[in-house]
Amino acid sequence: MPRMPASLRDSGVIAKRNLINIKRNPDWLLEGTVQPIMFVLLFAFVFGGSLGGERYREFLIAGIFVQTVAFNSSFTVIGLANDLQRGIVERFRALPMSRVAVLLGRTSSDLAVSVLTVVIMSVCGLLVGWRLRGDFTDVVLAYLVLLLFSFAMSWVGAFIGLIARSVEVAQSAGLLWLFPVTFISSAFVSAEAMPTPLRVFAQWNPITVNADLLRELFGNPVRVGMPAPTSWPAEHALLYAVGSSVLIVLIFVPLAVGRYRKVASR
Asked: Which residue ranges run through the membrane (predicted)?
């Protein structure tokens, strides 16, 4: 069988195996569903009154979407670290299968989890007052850009999971760096209100640009109580959002595959 179709077939088998594991352990989905719902309720009803009320709730949901799919990369981190610790990777290594299949299967199954999470978050957003005011094609494009970003982040998670020494380390490493990256952005508040160094970082942060692009495509407020941004990423949001996701994939796929080969050859 040609190499590419064989790799895709093997990846499909691994992805199916990972999804079956989630079906047998549904508590794994709690972090990916309950946590973002808690963030929506907390920011919408606890802080939302002083940040813009109903208008802020529409501003908020796109940021929660982007934060959630970024945090879902922790599934990839923990899943790979767990397979390494339990010796599952050694079993895969003994099989006549593509080296890339284990990683692509893992990132693909985690992308499926992100799709489910986005559906749940969309329903939750509608319940708290969020509305889709953009054209149908814009809304579809928004979801596709979001899932591309999710796929890119899962490859970052794959690399972290392969360099973690244990599942316990992976749990911390998979989330520790995400908190400052997601909060120093316009996911929850306008970046223009931040001090200059943080504002510059936030303006070029892919999470900011993805969140603002989703707001624009959904027809939601891009800024609440702050002037519109004038940075290059903001003025070329679609190009930057898609380009940054593709760049992340191009950087971390070789890193993850190279690390996997080193781990599997031990």
From this structure: 28-47, 59-82, 103-128, 140-163, 175-194, 237-257
> Considering only CA atoms, which of 80, 65, 72, 61 is closest in space to residue 21?
80
Do 93 and 264 touch, CB atoms closer than 8 A?
Answer: yes
Range of the domain at 233: 3-264
Spatial contact of 120 and 64, defined as CB atoms under 8 Å apart: no
Give the chain's domain count: 1
Centre a 10 Å sphere on the Cβ of residue 258 and count the other Cβ atoms it contains: 12
Please say whether the beta carbons of 118 and 70 come within 8 A: no
Pair of tokens at residue 85: 């610790």
Contacts (Cβ under 8 Å, ≥6 apart) of 35: 68, 71
> Cα-flanking dihedrals φ and ψ of residue 70, to 5°?
-65, -45
Q: 42-58: buried (b, 16+ CB within 10 Å) or exposed (e) per residue?
A: ebbeeebeebbeeebbb
Sign of CA dihedral 208, 209, 212, 218: negative
Q: What is the mean pLDDT of each run of 10 residues along the chain (266 residues)?
A: 64 80 70 77 70 75 91 85 78 73 87 90 87 92 97 93 79 79 87 85 94 93 73 92 96 90 67
Distance CA 68, CA 32 (A): 7
